[in-house]
Amino acid sequence: MEVSMWMWAAGGIAAALVVVPSLKPDPKKRALAKARATGELDAMIDYVEGGVKLSKVDAWDQLFLELWQRYDRELAARLIMAITPKYTDTKIFHHWINQVMQIEPEIASEVFTQDFLMTHYRPELASQCGKCGCGG
C-alpha cells in the first residue's frame, strides 16, 4: 500500500513538471500582445535583444515575418524602423524595409520618415535578398 502511494505521488509530481511549464505564457506571445495592446515596441525589442535562442538576426526576421503574415504590418514597419539603426549592415533589415515600401506604400509613407530612409535604408543590400533569403 505504501509503495502504491509513493508511485501515485511520483506520478503526480512528474505530471506537474510537464503541465506547469506549459501553462506559462510564451515570452514572444506576451511581447506581441503587449505591443498590440499598447502600441509600445519595448517588449518585443527586449524579447529579441534579451536572449532568444536563435541568432538575433534570425529572430528579428522571424518576428517581422510573423507580424507580416498576421497583417500586423504597421506594427512590423514601426518595429523595423525602431531596430534597423542597430543593424545597418544587415541585409534582411533592408529587405523588410523594401517589402513594406513595395507592398504597403501607405504604411511606409506613414511610418518611415525621410530621415530614416536617407540615413538607414540601403537598396543595394535589399536587392541581395530573394526567395531563399539573404545570406546574412
How is the secondary structure organized here?
Layout: H1 2-23, H2 27-38, H3 42-49, H4 56-69, H5 73-83, H6 91-103, H7 105-111, H8 114-120, H9 123-126
Helix pairs in contact: 2-3, 4-5, 5-6, 6-7
Report what the structure shows.
With about 140 residues, the protein is an all-alpha fold. Helices cover about 70% and strands about 0% of the residues.
Outline the biggest β-sheet: none
Share of helix, binned? over 70%
Number of strands: 0
SSE order, one letter for each helix or strand: HHHHHHHHH
Question: Summarize this, please?
Answer:
The protein has 136 residues and is an all-alpha fold.
Which features characterize this protein?
mainly alpha, 136 residues
